[in-house]
Write a structure and sequence with these properties.
With 357 residues, the protein is mostly beta strands. It has one helix at residues 11-18, and strands spanning 4-6, 20-22, 25-28, 33-36, 41-45, 48-51, 54-56, 61-65, 73-76, 81-83, 85-88, 92-94, 98-100, 103-106, 111-112, 117-119, 125-127, 135-136, 142-150, 162-165, 169-178, 190-199, 207-212, 218-219, 226-230, 235-239, 242-244, 249-255, 260-264, 274-276, 279-282, 289-296, 300-307, 313-321, 324-331, 338-345, 352-356. Strands 10, 13, 16, 19, 21, 22, 24, 25, 26 and 29 form a ten-stranded mixed beta sheet that branches. The protein has a seven-stranded mixed beta sheet with strand order 2-3-6-9-12-15-18, covered by helices on one side. It has a five-stranded parallel beta sheet with strand order 5-8-11-14-17, with no helix packed on it.
Length: 357
């Protein structure tokens, strides 16, 4: 099969013939190859994009523009789409993961990730993000960026929103940005943003972290914000060394390792999700990975039971808990969508209802 090539002269032909447009959606049919040649601009005027075939962006720019509806247009389809330049002039919602190799430029409206991932790879960048036009998502919706960090000095890979300084060689580093607060703050200060930072080398970094955020992501008194960190064993207050509420950033120096970070007031009330007594479970609803937080007063063995709607135990896990807060990661991706319960043997706790999407 010869692929259809997109150039300026063929753009009208592409939109009118090579693709199927309907119900405010341009669809690339299965088996169809669309290959950009040169640097064309593809403008989707009040249309979404559904890729069920093959789309090679090359150096093209894809523009979503002009909203005549309160509803966003969507980017999705059966195939994950890779864009070079993506420009947003209206509300757009993902219904599948996408990748950006160049810039995603936000001018007007929001890019709603829902529960999908915007992958910036090792070359993608975010430009123009503001309170009026930003990337946002439900629990599970993330932006990822990979960068090789060797003695970085205020490096903010892909303009993802976190700047890192260190004299150490961190190597290949994966940064994940989420768009919720993983802390349940009950009206206290918080940001609907967190970062997971995973360097290849993560010891003796003596790093400075600058956490950027938007006013639109804030709740509570901004002046109360401080840095919280989690290495997978509960959350702790890391504090702050400097902050600027006018320019929306907070810094913390002398971090030996880099892990997960968020901003909140100094006295959050636990983790979001369902809970029973002191057991906490998040995210809930869950799609892939579940985190169970078990605080116990002394070392003990606990058996966790995942029970389906019919009362059948679908998985049983034995865990030896240390005194204090224990964090258990549980991959539930393979289970069918529906309602489940997490029950416990060996500790005084009821069952937690879990919704699997």
């Amino acid at each position: 099969m010869r692929p259809i090539q997109i150039c300026y002269s063929l753009l009208l032909l592409l939109l009118c013939g090579a693709l199927c447009a309907g119900a405010q959606q341009v669809r690339v049919s299965p088996g169809l190859h669309i290959v950009a040649s040169g640097s064309p601009q593809l403008v989707f005027h009040n249309l979404g994009f559904s890729n069920n075939g093959y789309f090679k962006a090359a150096n093209s720019t894809v523009v979503f523009t002009d909203s005549t509806s309160a509803l966003p247009v969507t980017i999705g389809g059966a195939s994950k789409t890779s864009f070079h330049q993506l420009t947003i002039h209206r509300d757009v919602q993902l219904t599948n993961n996408i990748q950006i190799t160049g810039n995603i430029a936000l001018h007007k409206g929001n890019l709603q990730l829902d529960r999908y991932t915007l992958d910036l790879g090792n070359s993608g960048n975010i430009t123009g993000e503001s309170n009026e036009s930003r990337i946002m998502g439900k629990p599970g919706g993330t932006v990822t960026r990979t960068a090789v960090l060797q003695s970085p000095n205020g490096v903010n890979p892909g303009n993802i929103g976190v700047s890192i300084t260190s004299t150490a060689n961190l190597g290949t580093t994966l940064i994940t940005r989420g768009h919720e607060s993983p802390l349940h703050t009950a009206g206290a200060a918080a940001t609907a943003r967190y970062f997971d930072i995973a360097p290849a080398f993560n010891q003796n970094l003596d790093a400075t972290l600058q956490f950027h955020y938007l006013d639109a992501e804030l709740s509570g008194n901004e002046a109360e914000l401080t840095l919280f960190s989690s290495d997978g064993y509960g959350w702790k207050v890391s504090g702050k060394d400097n902050s600027n509420t006018s320019y929306n950033w907070l810094t913390k120096n002398r971090l030996g390792q880099l892990h997960r970070y968020t901003l909140a007031g100094s006295k959050p009330q636990g983790l979001k999700g369902s809970s029973t007594n002191t057991v906490q479970v998040y995210p809930n609803p869950v799609r892939d990975k579940l985190t169970v937080v078990l605080p116990v007063s002394s070392k003990q063995e606990v058996v966790l039971l995942l029970v389906d709607q019919s009362g059948q135990v679908v998985e049983r896990r034995k865990v030896v808990c240390s005194a204090g807060t224990n964090t258990i990661e549980w991959n539930v991706q393979r289970y069918a969508a529906g309602n489940y319960h997490l029950a416990f043997e060996g500790m005084d706790a009821g069952a937690v209802k879990i919704i699997k999407e």
